[in-house]
């Protein structure tokens, strides 16, 4: 059978836009034409065509906002948000792309893409026995088109990770056949299309009704056999149900002229011209390779890479600068297997696969005269340790991943994305294209293919090295990279290597106890809900919880029928089950994430070796994974208990050093707010003093705990985007009262509003927000015409410089403490970094010296930061305050 791909063009372009926008790919031509959505669209579509070997491809678009469905329902799709401004011009550009590539596309006045695709699918089914159809769309309405010869390709994430739906898969998902999809939509409605359906009838009830009565018409023919409130809902919603079904039904009888199907032949020269016109240079090689595969020709721009395979390394080949990439596919590199290594320099391109017992290779890594430049140095060093290859850490002089992150933290850290950081005509295929993914992951691909791919990765590092360093210098960010981020890599590497000891007996005890509590709670809930739920009801399923609360119990909900914590807390007093569900959620998270979930991360040394992600956040903060040790709450008593499983050694104790209100101190310094600076200088409580200002209290007046709490909400609200609406919610007051409170606050600290306005103005003009050390974050949201998106951009513009500067201060402290420990030849070490806190494991005999080094370096870190970036340390007038605590486990800290 020949496969034909029908593409919902609007759906794919929207998906491509949001996937690229939130990944930070704000692509524009030099003249300012946005191209990010088209770039992703072209990449995804050509990849799909080459991977799935389609005979022909047709793309359909919506032509206009008004269709025949608006004649039936005036406010059809009225609830949808406005199309982003920078996406609008890309609708025409994507049509130009299809023309240039010789891919047929269709649009028709008064009809949607669904109708054109539905018609094409039926024409193929009726007239072309040798063809089968796959429809690429995010629109689940198209499930109605599924037949034995037609399936739906549904993107699960971004514009990749596709799920194929046939009759069987649809039955598992919705328990209905394709012809009943429109009945399902008629009953439950579809908020995205502004279809109301029958009020109070959700997915579960709709499916149950259709199983019994087959169609909407069948339901109303036998309406008297349905009793109680459900009958009343159905009678009240009859007109809406029938209308919604009619509107959701795809018209498969549209007149389409000149429709024919023939073997696809992409136009390479037209495609290259298009890519050059819109400056998508990095796509030329990738798409050229795919065109050759799709057209089944040798047409390709592939330039043969010369490389030499070595059985053993030869140090006569080494030079001053050597670009290295070690290939490994494991996400957790502490368990990583080395598949091969590329070493590139001016002597040539070299590939090695058998690294064990290579004495010359170890000499190469130990020799400090040979500089090693790599991508993800922490990963590279760990993989070498895994294979017991000794190395001189100081010989590693460049990390492309960290350098690229400093230039643009919005772009995801993948070696392929180096080509999106600087202008280059290089190309690097996706890992999954070479190795497959998931169940199809294959490490044992042919030797030459693997060698070339590894060499290409090293080549990317080599070719982008000079442009990245030059751009760092142009942006005045080289000091940030060279003197803060790069030395921090070694600190994090050693922290990961040292690991954290686990008390397995305590872990087993807490795991058993928590599981027992979960089972008791579920038994209690089943007793309360007797008759309302089935025996195998899953209390961890948001879908089943939604149906239970809002369909069966009839509790009030928001439009999205959200079951998140905030939504449930609003209805906690309406039914006893809600409080128990919240408790159950807390316990199951504790069990699955922090107890049972931790077991798989314990290594043979009885430790967990977390990965500290240096390039994940937009603000410069560190994060943690495999496992995440940063999000174990100290406020929640149940979660806090889990901290007992982290224990110190026999001769050591844990010490936690925590910055007190660092972000408010940074705000005072950067905003030059005299009143705040004075409060910190005199070591007064900032929340108490803020309360005195807001409530106009005298110096001798007592500040109540409630007044202090309100002031605290304000102080942190300045950083995180204080609004009158948010404040009224937090303090349970009216919006008018909230407005007056905000006015009083800014009158008390007048320079803060000026500083906020300056930050927003600078970010709007520059396109990015920046920290004191010139760490930048792009803020494309500020250019949006959408009020909510722009407002979010305003919050980023204010929050990022403060939170990012606090992160930079912490990093400077960590680097300087680490250096001091090394100079003093100390055994004590850093264990973890969590928010504003650094945790150490300190040997008993080193306690006094270690505490002195830590306190001193943390307190002067802001001034040290100032010195590093070439400013005057004397500018920093706000002192940093550090709180310390100790314990034999993490529970005892603080």
UniProtKB/TrEMBL annotation:
CDD domains: DNA_polA_I_Bacillus_like_exo (cd06140), H3TH_53EXO (cd09898), PIN_53EXO (cd09859). Pfam families: 5_3_exonuc, 5_3_exonuc_N, DNA_pol_A, DNA_polI_exo1. Residues 2-267 form the 5'-3' exonuclease domain. The keyword Nuclease applies. PANTHER family: DNA POLYMERASE I, DNA POLYMERASE NU. Keywords: DNA damage, DNA repair, DNA replication, DNA-binding, DNA-directed DNA polymerase, Exonuclease, Hydrolase, Nuclease, Nucleotidyltransferase, Transferase. It catalyses: DNA(n) + a 2'-deoxyribonucleoside 5'-triphosphate = DNA(n+1) + diphosphate. Its EC number is 2.7.7.7. One of its GO terms (molecular function) is DNA binding. One of its GO terms (biological process) is double-strand break repair. Residues 639-846 form the DNA-directed DNA polymerase family A palm domain. Belongs to the DNA polymerase type-A family. This is DNA polymerase I. 5'-3' exonuclease acting preferentially on double-stranded DNA.
């Amino acid at each position: 059978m020949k496969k034909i791909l029908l593409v919902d063009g609007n759906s794919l372009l929207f998906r491509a836009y949001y996937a690229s926008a939130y990944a930070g790919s704000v692509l524009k031509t030099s003249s300012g034409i946005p191209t990010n959505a088209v770039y992703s669209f072209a990449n995804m579509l050509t990849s799909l065509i080459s991977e799935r070997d389609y005979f022909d491809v047709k793309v359909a678009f919506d032509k206009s906002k008004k269709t025949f469905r608006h004649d039936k329902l005036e406010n059809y799709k009225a609830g949808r948000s406005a199309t982003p401004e920078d996406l609008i011009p890309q609708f025409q550009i994507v049509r130009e792309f299809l023309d240039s590539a010789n891919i047929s596309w269709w649009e028709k006045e008064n009809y949607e893409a669904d109708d054109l695709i539905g018609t094409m699918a039926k024409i193929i089914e009726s007239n072309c026995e040798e063809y089968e159809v796959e429809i690429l769309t995010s629109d689940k309405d198209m499930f109605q088109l599924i037949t034995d010869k037609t399936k739906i390709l549904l993107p699960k994430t971004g514009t990749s990770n596709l799920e194929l739906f046939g009759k069987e898969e649809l039955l598992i998902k919705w328990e209905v056949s394709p012809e009943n999809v429109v009945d399902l939509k008629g009953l439950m409605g579809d908020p995205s299309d502004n279809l109301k359906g029958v009020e109070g009838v959700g997915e579960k009830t709709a499916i149950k009704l259709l199983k019994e009565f087959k169609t909407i018409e069948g339901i109303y023919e036998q309406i008297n056999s349905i009793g109680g409130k459900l009958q009343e809902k159905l009678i009240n919603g009859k007109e809406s149900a029938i209308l919604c079904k009619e509107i959701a039904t795809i018209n498969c009888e549209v007149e389409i002229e000149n429709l024919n199907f023939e073997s696809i032949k992409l136009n390479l020269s037209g495609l290259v011209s298009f890519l050059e016109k819109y400056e998508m240079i990095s796509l030329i090689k990738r798409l050229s390779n795919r065109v050759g595969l799709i057209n089944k020709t040798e047409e390709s721009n592939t330039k043969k890479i010369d490389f030499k395979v070595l059985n053993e390394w030869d140090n006569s080949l080494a030079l001053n600068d050597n670009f290295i990439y070690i290939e490994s596919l494991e996400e957790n590199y502490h368990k990583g297997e080395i598949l091969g290594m590329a070493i590139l320099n001016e002597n040539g391109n070299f590939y090695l696969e058998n690294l064990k017992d290579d004495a010359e290779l170890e000499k190469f890594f130990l020799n400090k005269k040979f500089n090693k430049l790599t991508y993800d140095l922490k990963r590279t060093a760990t993989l070498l340790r895994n294979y017991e290859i000794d190395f001189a850490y100081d010989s590693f002089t460049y990390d492309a991943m960290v350098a690229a992150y400093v230039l643009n933290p919005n772009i995801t850290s993948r070696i392929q994305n180096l080509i999106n950081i600087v202008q280059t005509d290089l190309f690097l295929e996706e890992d999954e294209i070479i190795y497959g993914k998931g169940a199809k992951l294959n490490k044992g691909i042919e030797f030459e293919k693997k060698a070339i791919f590894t060499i290409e990765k090293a080549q990317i590092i080599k070719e982008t090295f000079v442009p990245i360093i030059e751009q760092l210098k142009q942006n005045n960010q080289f000091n940030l990279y060279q003197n803060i981020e790069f030395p921090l890599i070694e600190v994090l590497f050693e922290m990961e290597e040292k690991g954290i000891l686990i008390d397995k007996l305590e872990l087993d005890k807490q795991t058993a106890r928590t599981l027992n509590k979960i089972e008791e709670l579920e038994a209690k809930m089943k007793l309360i809900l007797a008759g309302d739920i089935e025996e195998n009801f899953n209390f961890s399923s948001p879908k089943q919880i939604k149906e239970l609360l809002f369909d069966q119990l009839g509790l009030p909900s928001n439009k999205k029928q959200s079951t998140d914590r905030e939504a449930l807390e609003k209805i906690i007093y309406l039914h006893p089950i809600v409080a128990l569900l919240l408790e159950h959620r807390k316990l199951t998270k504790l069990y699955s994430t922090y107890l049972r979930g931790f077991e798989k991360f314990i290594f043979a040394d009885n430790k967990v070796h977390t990965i500290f992600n240096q390039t994940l956040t937009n603000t410069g903060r560190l994060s943690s994974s495999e496992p995440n040790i940063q999000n174990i709450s100290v406020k929640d008593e149940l979660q806090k208990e889990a901290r007992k499983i982290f224990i110190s050694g026999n001769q050591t104790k844990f010490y936690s050093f925590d910055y007190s209100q660092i972000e408010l101190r940074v705000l005072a310094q950067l905003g030059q707010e005299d009143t705040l600076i004075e409060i910190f200088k005199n070591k007064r409580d900032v929340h108490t003093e803020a309360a005195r200002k807001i409530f106009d209290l005298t110096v001798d007046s007592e500040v109540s705990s409630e007044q202090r709490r309100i002031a605290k909400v304000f102080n942190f609200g300045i950083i995180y985007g204080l609004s009158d609406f948010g404040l009224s919610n937090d303090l349970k007051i009216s919006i008018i009262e909230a407005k007056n409170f905000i006015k009083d606050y800014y009158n008390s600290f007048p320079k803060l509003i000026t500083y906020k306005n300056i930050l927003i103005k600078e970010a709007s003009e520059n396109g990015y927000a920046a920290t004191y050390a010139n760490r930048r974050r792009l803020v494309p949201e500020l250019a949006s015409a959408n009020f909510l998106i722009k407002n979010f951009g305003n919050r980023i513009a204010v929050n990022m410089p403060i939170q990012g500067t606090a992160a930079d201060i912490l990093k400077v402290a960590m680097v300087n403490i680490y250096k001091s420990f090394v100079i003093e030849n100390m055994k004590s070490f850093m264990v973890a970094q969590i928010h504003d806190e650094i945790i150490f494991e300190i040997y008993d005999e080193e306690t006094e010296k270690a505490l002195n080094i830590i306190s001193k370096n943390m307190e002067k870190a802001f001034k040290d930061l100032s010195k590093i970036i070439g400013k005057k340390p004397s500018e920093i007038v706000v002192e940093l305050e550090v709180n310390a605590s100790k314990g034999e486990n993490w529970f005892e800290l603080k």
